[in-house]
Design goal:
By secondary structure, the protein is α+β, with helices and mostly antiparallel strands. 22% of the residues lie in helices and 33% in strands. Strands 2-3-4-9 form a four-stranded antiparallel beta sheet, with no helix packed on it. Strands 5-6-7-8 form a four-stranded antiparallel beta sheet, with no helix packed on it. The chain has a three-stranded antiparallel beta sheet with strand order 1-11-10, with no helix packed on it. It is elongated. It starts with a helix and ends with a strand.
């Protein structure tokens, strides 16, 4: 009788441990292995009217967040919106004219250069072209 109870408890604890490992492990694994973006469009088209002078428009580029800027009239740039510190998504602060990472306070200018905080590298610059009334990223 005691032997059956012991087997049951060992099986129940093992099953519970495996379930908890899966519940914690899967999200952790997804976080540490970001989506490659395969199958995503190689280019993104953004209407020029959607990007105001001094403003920013966030888009998805190859499955990841990116931002299109118009720092001067008629001049467009695009950056990855993924912070180089821990991969959080930066937020544009129009009143300051820069980007801030909400996770650890890293700051970037509109060229992607690090202004403050822990980010080790600038934001990645993306290729941009103007095609008629559209901005083409990629």
């Amino acid at each position: 009788m005691a032997d059956n109870r012991r087997r049951f408890l060992v099986a129940a604890i093992g099953t519970t441990g495996a379930a908890l490992t899966a519940l914690v492990g899967w999200p952790l694994l997804r976080t540490l292995t970001p989506d490659s973006g395969e199958g995503a469009d190689a280019q993104v088209r953004v209407p020029r009217k959607d990007v105001p002078v001094g403003g920013a428009k966030f888009v998805q580029y190859k499955g990841k967040p990116a931002v299109v800027l118009q720092p001067e009239p008629g001049k467009f740039t695009a950056l990855s919106a993924v912070c180089t510190h821990l991969g959080c998504i930066v937020k544009f602060k129009p009143e300051q004219g820069d980007f801030e990472c909400p996770c650890h306070g890293g700051r970037f200018d509109t060229k992607g250069e690090v202004l403050a905080g822990p980010p080790p590298e600038p934001l990645a610059t993306l290729a941009v072209a103007v095609d008629g009334d559209d901005i083409v990223v990629g």
